[in-house]
């Protein structure tokens, strides 16, 4: 055996960690992606875990996965298939091998492939590799459990705690395989387990043991790999999930607007991490309340908005159903409010840990009466920061509730994020009542240009007023049942939203002469962009128009969509965005690509479907 393995340079690689829900695969994947982001790699992650609180150990339904795409440049998707698969038990190998490339390296814990384990995973023979058609030469078979026990024999930890360190051994092998510096891992673990230093040091010891195992045995692989960063932009980077980016965006918007931030929320998968993150930042003037239900979460935020705070409420699709009456109150009162909907699989409880785009029409129309509301859709984990910041700016400057649509894929997934300079963020100027209105203020006097009413904070002498759910006279602010006034107010509220300025729709790829325009919105951007680039590499003329702003639509939407002979709208629902565009754009008749699987698009499937449309 050669003393030193060849170190090959790669542009990108996909790694998938998998095991029981209690095996710490999410943590191992997060650490590996954080280390990669810290050194400047582009990353895109996909946590894929079951809805069971804790499925039976070793069962097929209890497998938890974490896939990360590491790239020298930008990583647009977590990847269709992985180059390295870590399978901590037989069930993980059985269920996750379908996500591996034919030539993938597979790392397994042989101690979790005993007769009982194989039976739980429904293998029919002891030759599990042969049964699945896996080449043994591609398998790094390591007795991880026993080696971790030996490594921590003198630690004083109980057996249960020792076994929880198995994920760190696997992480150590992967870090060796990709020449990752363990100093970053060490720092991460000491920070994470700051209150349990003994546990931190044991995990660090196990990571090094895994790294040394790979180094000393060469782990049955022909080479190790490096993924250097290209086009580095100077700055501080971190690996950030969409939910954390959303929380940071709200904090930044409140700081920029000179307001306190209030979040009224109720725990719901997959949005709860926004509440958890914001609760850590009381020093930034953040107020968080975990309310007794979804309705009170939204209603308390409306009260905070009336009192002068930047108010937000976070939830998922089922919570939007419950909040709809309170959201309508914000519409008729014309109060600034950011409503964050982290979409998941439905209907009803549905697939609570999976991702869809099925709340679009609910966000647009799911309230009684004429209830216009701006809707923005975040396109990536890092874009969650920019999108929620834009939502807060619109809410405060135009006095309206705004819906931000993310989804489980971008909310739980992560990307490398360059920390912004708050001085470079767009200014936010809340639409306050003017000094000239003192003594003559009424709540529905409007800015003649934007149609926005003026925001008066309670307690200001000369600006006394009443808001409520009953229709008000547009001039006096008094309760009114006059039919002409109601018609007028409905039109004014709609016109105000229509006038909100949003960026023009951009077309990427072969914008001038594409044979096919791909259209999408929200969290499918990375997959649609990758499909476009793959098709262009194959010689096709293809372009992409991806929507960040849903209501109001960009002013040039009709012009862009009418420019191409063939347009396909691709979305993770049964055609909601396509139907909305047909309603808003005359004579728009697109092709459609629709999936509702609770899983991200597969780029290869997109390419096949879009190529068929071109060839037809």
From TrEMBL:
Alphabetical UniProt keywords: Oxidoreductase
Domain Pyruvate:ferredoxin oxidoreductase core: 514-587
Domain of life according to the entry: Bacteria
Pfam families per the UniProt record, alphabetical: PFOR_II, POR, POR_N
GO MF annotation terms: oxidoreductase activity, acting on the aldehyde or oxo group of donors
Transmembrane segments: none
Domain Pyruvate flavodoxin/ferredoxin oxidoreductase pyrimidine binding: 264-441
Any GO BP: response to oxidative stress
Domain Pyruvate/ketoisovalerate oxidoreductase catalytic per the UniProt entry, residue ranges: 22-212
InterPro entries noted in UniProt: 2-oxoacid/accept_OxRdtase_asu, PFOR_II, Pyruvate:ferred/Flavod_OxRd, Pyrv/ketoisovalerate_OxRed_cat, Pyrv_Fd/Flavodoxin_OxRdtase_N, Pyrv_flavodox_OxRed_cen, THDP-binding, Transketo_C/PFOR_II
Protein name: MFS transporter
Native source species: Xylanibacter rarus
